[in-house]
Structure formats: C-alpha cells, structure tokens
C-alpha cells in the first residue's frame, strides 16, 4: 500500500470537528464570529483536500489505496480504523468538501428561520465529517458509523429549519433511513460471520467472500440492497425524498442532493458488488428494472408537480436511476458512468436547489403557476437557471450528458464472461426505456424553465401582488408618500418595496439579482459543470483503474 502522507486523510475527515469544538465556547449571539469560524474551518478542510489531490498518485497507481491507515480500534469485535483513498472515492471525497464550503458561504446572509447560525453551522460541520469519512472508510463498522453520523444533523436541519411540514418530513426521513440501516447492519454482520469472523476489513472480505454459498450471498446482498437503496433512493424506497427536499432549508436540500444520496450508490460500488459478486449477478436484473422504473416514474412525477423545489426533488429520483442502471450492468463502462453521474448530479442538482432557494428567498413561494418573466426582473439568476436546466436534461457539452449517455450505452452490453452473463435482451430493453426517460427529462425541465423564466413578468414577479395574492399597490397608495415603507411582514409572503418622495412605488426595491455571496457559492459549481462537460476524461482517467480493481471479483466468477 502507498502510505506517504497517510496522516492527511484523518486530518481531512476530523478537522471540521475542531471547528465545532471552538464554536461550542462562543455565544450564539456572536453570529458573525460563528459564521466566520465555520467558513474558515470548511476552507481549511478543503485546502487539506486540495493537498490530498496534489499528493495523490494518478495513472496506474490510482487503483491502489493511498494514504492508507490501518490501526487498532475496537479489538473486541475485530474492527480496525482502516481508511484509504482510491480513484473512485477521491472525486466524491473532494466534492463533499467543496459543497460544504460553498453552502456555508451561501449561508452568510441566508440563515433560515428561526435563525441560530451557531447551531446551523455546527450541524453542517458534523455532516462534513460523516460524509468524508464514509468515502474513505475501509472497515465495515467504521463505514457504518460514518454512514449513520450524517443522519442526526440532517434530521435536525429539516426538523428545525424546514418548512411548514418539517416535522413530518424529518421524521419520515429518519425512519426510512434507520429502517434501511438496520437491515444493512444485519447484512454486514452476516458477511462477517460467513467469512470466518476474522475481520471487518474490506480487503479481507474481498479476498474471502468466495467461501459464501450463492444462496446465502443472495440474502446478505438483499440486506445491503435495502440499506443502500433507501439512501439512493431507488423506487419504491424513494417516497421520503420529495418531502425531505421540499421541507428542508436550501442548504439541507443542496447537501442532501449533492452528497448524501451518493452514499447509497457508493455503498453498492465499494461494498455490495465486490464482496458479494455472485449475488450481484443475481440481483443485477432487479436493480436494472427498478432503476428504469425510477427513471420513468421520476420523470412523470416531475410533470405532475406545481412546486419548483418538489419538481427538482423528483428529478433526483430519475437521475439517480441512470446511476443505478450503470451500476446494474456490472461493467467497467457502466460503473465509470455511474460514478461520473454521481458527481455530475451533485454539481447540477445542487445548483438547481441553490437557485430554487434564492427564488423563494426573494418571492416567498416556489409555485410555478405564480411565476413567469424572471428573465426580465432578475436576468442573471434566470440565465443561470436555464444553463442548469440544460445541464440536468443532458445537453452535450455539459456535465449531465456524460452522466446519462454512457450509463444508457452501457446497458447495450451488460456483464458477461465465459461462465456467467446478464440477459442482453432485458438490458437492451431497459436501455431503450431509459432513453425515453431523457426525452421526458427535456420535457419537464424545459416546461419548468419556460413557465418560470419566459414571457411577461407575472403579477408576483412584477411586484403587483405578494405570494398570497394580496394587492401590494393598494398599500402603496394608502401610505405616506414622503417616506419609505414596507408592505406586509417580512417572511410572511410579502415582497418589500419602498415609496419615494415623488410617490413612485418600486415594488422590488429589495429584490435584487444574484448577490455577492451567491456568486461566490455558485461560480465553482458552474465552472465544474462546464469543465467536466467539455473534458469528461478529466475524471474518467482517475476512475478507470479503481473501477477495474473493484470489478475483479465479478470478472473472476466461474458460475460454480
């Protein structure tokens, strides 16, 4: 193993907790100081991540575990603190750091009700530790601990800072995830005992999984499947996602879409398939069928939505379906496409949730029917929305295309060797249906963009009415023309405006185009969408070696 600079992963994972420790001693009234410490902590953590990228050995070495640490942790249960980074985990590890920092920058002037920036920022730092740790853990118990660390912070982010139905959405999120995790833990324990009860190390399990009979492996895989499928989420385990996204604050939605959903797909690639290759072949058709159902179901769900944020949430079900279709092929091409799709979805859907949050912050609603003409009122935000919609529907030249097209193409020739093969007719049928899903994606995304951005400004966007339909001009004419006034109560659906000395009302005195903190938070994501779209090999060449190594147990199957 490559062990140079092997301290850097531990620092990268746990450094956010140092920021948490400092913030615990600062009063919550010191809001700016708490925000500054959180952002500095996230920035230093990202700097550690960038150093990790710089020291990472690319080329043929990218398939090896680098910065590898293997020390005693819980000897009583034979679990060790084993971490390492390879070409599959590195993009997701770095993405978690980037997203956390950008969300914190955005939060500088976007702390949702009921406030308390200190607690809000602390939860995001804890989330960062859980996300990063999951992507580097090489021991099943360590993986499970990090996998579960993210649950409680997200539960509180939704339950405390969410929308009107936040308690229902947070409880549903918690129960679904806990149910999946319970079955996943049982599967991990079964895998441990069936391989001789010697170690939870992934390397050990990869090497000894062949001693498990196929029938037993199929049932163990079933437990992992449910645990990871709930997190993805796959149809029919997806129903918590639209509610969680719709009720979560903008920051929670961005982190959930960009990183947390990827913990499930990463679990399939890192754990389920390499440790149980014989079961993976049995389950692959089921995964492929459910993935394609999710693609079509998610797209049709989007067409039925009236709320912009809920539409984006259903689009995640569809787009993660493409990722799972690539994984189900059990081919190098398909899993490369799946990991690429995970990163692309994180960038694009994270941006869409940022945009939805900023629109709601300005107009206090996300009802598509009330919008229209945003390009006239806030053109920069409108054009960014258009770009991200095009990326999400898979426009060539942007990152979304390389997340969908290769995944669809991989289904043309699913896994086969001299002894074992997946059904070509089935997967080619799934390929055709998935391709239809891209047409539906173009339909719902262009429909959303057209209704929100084009045409004359709607009464809400023009400032004639507030989000509840109340006439704002009635208040302006009744007011004192010598002073400045705000109509309605901030945070209760009203759009603030001032009346100048000349008596000319400006219904959007406080509604502005993209602000400085929004530009800082969004620009790296927009650059990433364009760069990865124009030069996809930038990531494919990092992934390929590791994917080949992870699929080696599948390639070695003999069918016996």
Topology:
Layout: H1 8-23, H2 31-55, E1 66-74, E2 79-85, H3 89-106, H4 117-136, H5 140-149, H6 151-161, H7 166-194, H8 202-208, H9 214-231, H10 240-247, H11 250-275, H12 277-303, H13 308-328, H14 332-363, H15 374-377, H16 379-392, H17 399-410, H18 424-453, H19 459-462, H20 472-478, E3 498-499, E4 505-506, H21 516-534, H22 537-550, H23 552-555
Antiparallel strand pairs: 1-2, 3-4
Helix pairs in contact: 1-2, 1-4, 2-3, 2-4, 3-4, 3-11, 3-14, 3-21, 4-5, 4-6, 6-7, 7-9, 7-10, 9-11, 9-12, 10-13, 11-13, 11-14, 12-13, 12-18, 13-14, 13-17, 13-18, 14-16, 14-17, 14-21, 14-22, 16-18, 17-18, 17-21
Task: Give your account of this protein's structure.
By secondary structure, this protein is mostly helical. The chain has two domains: 7-458 and 512-555, no CATH class; 478-510, no CATH class. Helices cover 67% and strands 4% of the residues. It contains 23 helices and four strands. It has helices at residues 8-23, 31-55, 89-106, 117-136, 140-149, 151-161, 166-194, 202-208, 214-231, 240-247, 250-275, 277-303, 308-328, 332-363, 374-377, 379-392, 399-410, 424-453, 459-462, 472-478, 516-534, 537-550, 552-555, and strands at 66-74, 79-85, 498-499, 505-506. It has a two-stranded antiparallel ribbon. Strands 3-4 form a two-stranded antiparallel sheet. It is globular, with a radius of gyration of 24 Å. It starts with 7 loop residues before the first helix and ends in a 5-residue tail after the last helix. The model is unreliable at 478-509 (pLDDT under 50).
């Amino acid at each position: 193993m490559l062990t140079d600079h092997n301290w850097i992963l531990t620092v990268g994972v746990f450094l956010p907790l140092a920021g948490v420790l400092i913030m615990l001693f600062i009063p919550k009234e010191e809001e700016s100081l708490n925000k500054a410490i959180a952002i500095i902590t996230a920035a230093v953590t990202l700097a550690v991540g960038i150093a990790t990228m710089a020291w990472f050995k690319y080329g043929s070495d990218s398939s090896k575990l680098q910065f590898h640490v293997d020390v005693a942790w819980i000897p009583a249960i034979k679990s060790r603190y084993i971490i390492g980074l390879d070409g599959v985990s590195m993009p997701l590890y770095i993405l978690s750091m980037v997203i956390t920092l950008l969300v914190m920058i955005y939060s500088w002037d976007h702390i949702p009700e009921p406030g308390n920036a200190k607690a809000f920022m602390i939860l995001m730092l804890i989330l960062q530790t859980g996300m990063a740790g999951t992507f580097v853990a090489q021991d099943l118990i360590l993986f499970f601990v990090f996998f579960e660390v993210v649950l409680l912070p997200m539960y509180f982010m939704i339950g405390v800072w969410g929308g009107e139905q936040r308690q229902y959405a947070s409880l549903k999120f918690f129960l679904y995830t806990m149910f999946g995790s319970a079955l996943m833990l049982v599967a991990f324990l079964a895998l441990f005992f069936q391989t001789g009860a010697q170690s939870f190390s992934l390397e050990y399990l990869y090497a000894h999984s062949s001693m498990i009979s196929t029938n037993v492996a199929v049932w163990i895989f079933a437990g992992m499947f449910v645990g990871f499928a709930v997190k993805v989420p796959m149809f029919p385990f997806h129903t918590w996602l639209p509610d969680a996204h719709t009720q979560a604050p903008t920051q929670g939605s961005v982190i959930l879409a960009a990183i947390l959903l990827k913990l499930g797909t990463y679990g399939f690639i890192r754990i389920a398939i390499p440790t149980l290759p014989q079961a993976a072949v049995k389950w692959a058709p089921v995964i492929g069928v459910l993935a394609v159902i999710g693609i079509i179901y998610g797209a049709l769900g989007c067409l039925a939505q009236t709320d912009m944020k809920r539409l984006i949430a259903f689009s995640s079900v569809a787009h993660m379906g493409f990722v799972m279709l690539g994984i189900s092929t059990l081919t190098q091409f398909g899993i490369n496409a799946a990991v690429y799709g995970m990163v692309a979805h994180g960038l694009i859907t994270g941006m869409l949730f940022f945009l939805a949050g900023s629109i709601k912050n300005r107009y206090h609603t996300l009802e598509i029917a009330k919008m229209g003409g945003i390009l006239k009122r806030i053109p920069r935000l409108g054009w960014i929305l258009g770009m991200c919609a095009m990326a999400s529907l898979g426009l060539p030249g942007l990152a979304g295309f390389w997340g969908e097209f290769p995944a669809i193409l991989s289904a043309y020739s699913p896994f086969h060797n001299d002894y074992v093969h997946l059904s070509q007719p089935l997967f080619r049928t799934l390929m055709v249906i998935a391709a239809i899903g891209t047409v539906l994606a173009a339909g719902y995304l262009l429909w959303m963009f057209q209704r929100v951005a084009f045409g004359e400004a709607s009464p809400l966007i023009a400032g004639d009415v507030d989000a509840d339909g109340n006439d704002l001009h009635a208040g302006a004419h009744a007011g004192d023309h010598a002073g400045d006034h705000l109509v309605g109560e901030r945070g209760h659906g009203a759009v603030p405006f001032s009346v100048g000395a000349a008596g000319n009302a400006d219904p959007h005195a406080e509604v502005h185009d993209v602000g400085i903190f929004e530009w800082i938070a969004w620009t790296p994501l927009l650059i990433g969408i364009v760069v990865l779209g124009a030069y996809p090999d930038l990531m494919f060449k990092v992934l390929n070696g590791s994917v080949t190594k992870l699929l080696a147990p599948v390639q070695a199957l003999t069918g016996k």
